[in-house]
Amino acid sequence: MKPSLHDVNLARRRALKAAGGGLAIAFLWTGTGGVAHALASARRQPGDAAMAAADGAPPFAPNAFIRVDTDGSVRLVIPSVEMGQSIYTGFAMLISEELGVGLDQVRVEHAPASTDLYGMPLMGGQLTGGSTSTRSGWEVMREAGAVARTLLVSAAAAKWKVEASECTVSRGIITHAKTDRAIGFADVATAAGRLPMPDKVILKDPKDFTLIGKPMRRVDAFGKVNGTLPFGIDVKIDGMKVATVQACPTFGGTLKGVNEAKARAVPGVVDVLKLSNAVAVVAGHFWAAKKGMEALEIEWDLGPNAGLTTEKLISTLASASMNGTPILGRKVGARPSAGKRVSATYQLPMLAHATMEPLNATVEVTADKCEIWAGTQVPVRCVDAAMAITGLPREKIVLHPQYLGGGFGRRLEHDYVDQAVRFAKQVGYPLKIIWTREEDIRQDIVRPPYYDRVEALLDGDGMPVWFADRTTGPSILARFMPPAMTKEGLDSDMVECSAETPYDFPNLQVDWVRQEMPDGMVVGWWRGVGPLHNLFVVEAFMDELAHAAGKDPVAYRRALVRKSPRTLGVLNLLAEKTQWGQVPLPGRVGRGVALGEPFGSHVGAMVEVEVSEQGKVHLRRVVVALDCGIAINASSIEAQVQGGVIFGLSAALYSGITIRNGAIEQSNFHDYRSLRISEAPVIEVHRVDSKEKPGGLGELGTAIVAPAMVNAIFAATGVRLRQLPVDPDLLVKDKAALKETLSALMPAVGEGA
Amino acid sequence: MFELSVNGQVHQVDAPDDMPLLWVLRDMVGLTGTKFGCGVAQCGACTVHLDGHPVRSCVLPVSGVAGRSVTTVEGIGNTSAGKRVQAAWLDIDVVQCGYCQSGQIMSASALLARVPAPTDSDIDAAMSGNICRCGTYVRIRAAIKQAATGIPAILQTIDDARAAP
């Protein structure tokens, strides 16, 4: 029976609860047909046998994740994709812990596209994003290892005619101490493969963990330091040709025509291919394709958005914020009639992802098969799209997943894969399509702009008796996962971390005015998603409230988080590690904090900046305190938080996509800046130990750091920044003096040398 | 036709004069460890050594390379500095997505070959041409110092976490 929408909503609520409370991103993705899938299981599923047969036909494949070969070697199939977040290592640790092998004894494999076998509960599908992988999979991965261990031990015990419960497993060796016997996986794999699935398995007692909780090195590091690990862009297929593409630079524009002569005259160019809104130049190697593209004369129909500018987009948001009809996110109590009013407007820019590996996909389409080699966060969606484009049935589409040279939400979209399939369908050879960096930025599916009006009323003691946030912007979720929208039309991502905060506000209202972008302009997820946007607004505003109350920002927050002990623990650890309020700071140096509960974790950040008299922000130090529940891999927690902080600071300091004449203005790393090592601060990560279920980590540092940075800038300069990225002109110490200095340096107009 | 020496091996390549070394390496020689990131020498993902000096291969025409010695990430482990850098990278677990790391390792190896005990400002100067979007800079700095001194950098996470209140 197909589940009803009611079942879907019920399951979704359960998933939300499982995610650790709050409005953590947790969807039940039911696929385009509205059909709920079985999702990953620790036990053998229909379809497992065929999948294992295609994966080397190992004698022992108790579920979709574990293969033991005839020589006893262990292969693990990882359902989430690896894009830097270390999930291959984390999941390998969880499975290996229960299976009884060392991390050095396993090899990891990309999972093929299959919702039934590799769909994850929190996302309800085979989708890597939203900082959900560990939260979603940590129990099923452990159980998968335990199921395999139970079967292997049963086979050994039966062989020896001893009690299975007397056997132990370590580093791939099953031992029966009483009779002093030991056997390797190789010798019991076939027998274990014939045993029925165990109903119940016993998971290890945490005190016996040998891997979980230890700082472990990554399983994918070796090939990443010697250049041998292949990414999608490195794929080589016999007979393959290489293309680069250009799509219409304006949103929703189309291709009018091309003059191919000059492009075809470039040595090495073999083809010019067209789609309704893009062209590809094909050659034997990328350089010839790029030269061919430069020589190609293209005529675009710029379409209905040819006049679009950033200013127009923002003024539409501002007007919708004032005049639109809000959808309620959460309401508690009512607005009191009295109190000291504090209000502010915050604005966030569009952002590109700029993954280090430019978008690419390799596709071969024949009469009865379509093969795709691509790094993607949504393997099944790529297959679905290829079915629609080629008309081939699911079993004729083969996706070969690849390591991702960065995801950040960009590879949650499959536009680049669809495009490659459409081009490859036109030719009789495998086609690798590589976007230039310019194309990668200009055709990004950008994080949309947001516009927030916030208001608070403070009592006589300066404490908030009312908090209100009206956010305005488009819904990504409505396009990406329509069933996840509530029946009232709320996109939970729009109010995540603003509707629910750690603070004890007696009265509050958080709502959202839905203002879509113009037709043809598609916007998408970006590392940090809703919490990134809302934590910036809430935490920068909290700093304003503390200032209005004349109170220390840490003390002010502490007084309001009494009902959130884990968050209070994080705040106290942060204050202690930073010696908050006890360190004298020189002039133009300031410290700011931010606190939140994104992605089922609890996190606080302190940023210390120095702002030069010319307005340049120097990042001196960042300290992050967090409680992310049970720590699976302490080393990757630190790495994810540090990297997330850098990603968030890059955006807050430098990144902003702007639109002129309907097109993205930025094109490469010179005008879409990233933090460089010379600008990167020291980043300390401190953890509160916890036995709670794991929280999300991949987006934690990114989501918490920007408000701490603007609060630090306020402390250093007295200038309140309510718009990102940072505008250094606003931070100049003495504007009149600077103007004088600059005019003295500049020759007067009209004077020649 | 150009004669190239890459990691000590000689290759004959039939490439146009203006073809950047990056694409010759990737599409003709078949060494894909050197990465394409920006095409305009902004990100450093394509860094290789030319006679031991770090260069951005995405803007270096193959015609300027003939007769000189090219080293890529596939061959850097055969140098003393490169070997130490790769070992430190693994020990400190620097990489995340890993795409920029070929370039990072090439820049770091060139730095160590030139400056045996680099200071923070030496590291800033040598490494600021290499962007890492995953933000591995803290560990890159630690790994360079470990590779230089041989003294293991201690990951902060090895300290015990604070007990819950």
Protein described:
The complex is a heterodimer of chains A (753) and B (165). With 753 residues, chain A is an alpha+beta fold. Chain A folds into three domains: 172 residues, Aldehyde oxidase/xanthine dehydrogenase, molybdopterin binding domain (Aldehyde Oxidoreductase, domain 4, 2-Layer Sandwich); 149 residues, Aldehyde Oxidoreductase, domain 4; 286 residues, 2-Layer Sandwich (Aldehyde Oxidoreductase, domain 4). Chain A has a seven-stranded mixed β-sheet with strand order 9-10-7-17-14-15-16, with helices on both faces. A five-stranded mixed β-sheet of chain A has the order 12-20-19-18-13. A four-stranded mixed β-sheet of chain A has the order 21-22-23-26. In chain A, helix 3 runs parallel beside helix 5 and helix 15 runs parallel beside helix 19. In chain A, 56% of the residues are buried. Chain B has 165 residues and is an alpha+beta fold. Chain B has two domains: 70 residues, Ubiquitin-like (UB roll); 74 residues, Orthogonal Bundle (DNA polymerase, domain 1). Helices cover 35% and strands 13% of the residues of chain B. Chain B has five helices and five strands. Chain B has a five-stranded mixed β-sheet, sandwiched between helices. In chain B, helix 2 crosses helix 5 and helix 3 packs across helix 4. The mean pLDDT of chain B is 94.
Can you tell me the CATH superfamily of the largest domain in chain B?
[2Fe-2S]-binding domain
Main beta sheet of chain B: 5 strands, mixed
Low-confidence stretches of chain B: none
Structural class of chain A: alpha+beta
Largest sheet of chain A: 7 strands, mixed
Which two protein chains have the largest interface (Cβ within 8 Å of the partner's Cβ), and how many residues from each?
A-B, 88 and 69 residues
CATH architecture of the largest domain in chain A: 2-Layer Sandwich
User: Could you tell me how far the N terminus lies from the C terminus of chain B, measured between alpha carbons in angstroms?
Assistant: 70 Å
**What sort of overall outline of chain A do the alpha carbons produce when their principal axes are compared?**
globular
Beta-strand portion of chain A reads 15-25%
Strand order of the largest sheet of chain A: 9-10-7-17-14-15-16
Report the top-level CATH class of the largest domain in chain A.
Alpha Beta
| Helical residue percent band of chain A | 25-40%
Which stretches of chain A of 5+ consecutive residues score pLDDT under 50?
1-37
Structural class of chain B: alpha+beta
Query: Spatial order of the strands in the main sheet of chain B?
Result: 2-1-5-3-4
Mean pLDDT figure of chain A:
93
